[in-house]
Amino acid sequence: MTGSLRTQRLSEQRFGQAMAIAAAVLVACTAIALWAGYERITIPRLLHDDVARSVFFRLRLPRVIMAGIIGATLAAVGAALQALFRNPLAEPLTLGVSGGGSLGAGIAIALGWGARIAGTPVVFIAAFAGSLASISLVYRIARSGAVVAPGSLLLAGIVVNLIANAAVVLIEYTIDPSRSLEILRWLVGTLDVVGFSLIWQMLPFVLPGWLVLLLVARDLHLLAVDEESAASLGVNVRRSERIVYLATSLLVGVTVSVGGSIGFVGLVVPHIARLLFGQDTRFALPASFFLGAGFLMLADALARSVMGQTELPVGAVTGLVGGPFFLWLMRRRQRYVML
Amino acid sequence: MILLEAKQLDFHYVIGRPTVIDVSLAIRAGSMTAIIGSNGCGKSTLVRLLAGILQPAKGSVLYRGVPLPSYERGERARTIAYVPQNSARAFPFTSLEVVLTGRTPYTSPFRLENSHDTSVAIEALETVGVAHLAERRITELSGGERQLVSVARALAQQPECILLDEPSSSLDLKHRAQLIRTLKALRSTRGMTVVMVTHDLNLLDPGFDAVLAMRYGAIAASGAPSEVLTDASLAAIYEDPYVRARRIDGQLCVWSEVH
Fold first, then answer.
1. What is the ipTM of this complex?
2. Quick check: A1 contacting B, CB < 8 Å?
3. Strand ranges across the sheet with B66-67
4. Is A144 inside any structural domain?
5. How far apart are CA A225 and CA B8, in angstroms?
6. How far is A57 from chain B, CA to nearest CA, in Å?
């Protein structure tokens, strides 16, 4: 048994190494993201320049942290949904979860931004409800009997997303046509944030959601291998599904309320994680947190710097990277699985 | 001793269209039982009910006299293994990774598998004769190879009782016979109880102790293979007057005349 303990330590060491590598990538991405932008901020400037310092602490730092939180969330949600549905093309955008969330948030915003119930922004709750409604709807459409048709799942998700976006545009135009540019930026996904207050508001929702996903990682791994086998191995499939729906809807709802529907982070990052650390969801899911945070920080740094003084919405960057990646994956996947 | 018992099971996927109707059965410990019947007669559903992954609308499944739902899930998985008819291949897991999932009921939720688990998994792959596939990705395997990996995953659970749903449907003639030989060996070395849904009627006698025939969701016939696998009884089970059962060199052969 000492031998077996050693291997267990070895594989757990391998897990530790994987997480250390992912964390190191995140640190590097953070450094680049903090430096890059229309204003390049270096350490000497930070020490001696009051303007640079103010830009850094009021704008740059909160924004990079926000990108990190949202990126980590979307990537982990993507990894969880891919495993749950055994579909490598699943992610918040392609399953309509983002769309539903933005419709919920859109309605709440139209009815008045600042409203709160028991200290909780109404917009978060509305977006959570929207996300939950759309994932349930998409799942019901795609499931027939014991099987979830992978093609139907994606089609239903994408159409729900289109409907939700159309409804958001309609609502916002009806209320205030002068805000059309703002709405457009939000639909594509953008990270305008000043100060830390929004981050503090998000954390009570995001942290429990993250924890739940980590707790169900093993069930998700078994489901990714095979649903019926997972059930026979002791996974309560319906309960795991419900837990993942609730957690992912909450997470996506909150991130969409803050940053709009930033697409494809949840698709690209879990694939990178699996490429680096193997197919095991117990590795890929936690690694997706680190890599997702780093990925969105870099994408946002790019969005802030490529156009000079004008900022691109970060969703345009992730869409241009992730969209073609989706198509390439779909093409590659057709070799062994029919959609 | 009766190991697995079903009492008046009813099940439907769609209300008004029952899939399993009033099925009662008893399976002895250490026996090999085949469930046969035409396509869509409810065999797979019955096996899922026996495995505890579907819950009956009425009736109950007992294991060692105790209702299946009162077993803790992990305990159930250490006792009863189930091999589905098809398994997913959405991600390119290696065969070994798939077989290692069979060790889940023995591992705590936040630990990874240890070398004992790995050696049990490799032994399971060897038992079904596919150890050479350990590092291959399941997405690159043939249907038959994947079925054998799936059986190995179930064996890695080290169960008392294994339920298999058409495990040999994609296997060639050599591997079909090989799989039955393996199951027989496990029965005699570990006392494993085997319940297998199959269309391979030629491999049941000699070898199996009991055959359960289903028709329209109900048990149409049951007994020793020599009793159930006869012209008259098979003609009724499959509603096919052309079925023939003959003993050739001591082995019971079953076919349907094509003319």
1. 0.92
2. yes
3. B17-28, B2-14, B58-63, B66-67
4. yes
5. 33
6. 38
